[in-house]
Amino acid sequence: MKNLIQYVEEQTAREMSQFDYFKAGDTVSVTYKIIEGQKEREQTFRGTIIQVKGTGVTKTFTIRKISHGVGIERIFPFNCPTLVSIVNHQKGRVRRARLYYLRNAIGKAGRVKEKTFVKRQTAEDKGRKYSWTFGNK
């Protein structure tokens, strides 16, 4: 029985690895299928990740967005066949894994700052910056 569970978890782990890596605070857009009778269409939900919960097959994530002044939260399971794509638009700079405080924040306080990456200077780059010449010209 345990081998069967491990097999199923390995199969779903491969399927889940097709999506970009993200964590709480990131701004993502999730495209998913909606089936209404015989029709099938895709819809996109763009917002901030509030939490990532669980492991393996039961892993889920919650996205929050503000639409016309009303907060909307949606919980998506990673192992959902209706998920088409997850695109990470912005890395958020947060110090928490659960961002429940965003529910009460209004206006600018409800925003998450963007994480900026600075390229490190190597010793060669620093040497070019200060090009000293010694001795005769």
Defining traits:
single chain; 137 residues; alpha+beta; SH3 type barrels; 5-stranded antiparallel β-sheet; extended
Can I get a quick summary?
By secondary structure, the protein is α+β, with helices and mostly antiparallel strands. It is built from two helices and five strands, in the order H-E-E-E-E-E-H.
Mean pLDDT: 84
Q: Which structural class matches the secondary elements?
A: alpha+beta
Largest sheet: 5 strands, antiparallel
The neighbouring-strand order within the major sheet is: 4-3-2-1-5
Mind telling me which CATH architecture this is? Roll
CATH structural fold name: SH3 type barrels
Provide the CATH top-level class: Mainly Beta
Helix run count: 2
Topology pattern, helix = H, strand = E: HEEEEEH
The helical percent reads 10-25%
Instruction: State the total count of DSSP E strands.
Output: 5
Could you characterize what this model shows?
The protein has 137 residues and is of the alpha+beta class. It has one domain: Roll (SH3 type barrels), CATH 2.30.30. It is 16% helix and 36% strand. The protein contains 2 helices and 5 strands, in the order αβββββα. A 5-stranded antiparallel beta sheet has the order 4-3-2-1-5, with no helix packed on it. The model has no long low-confidence stretch (mean pLDDT 84).
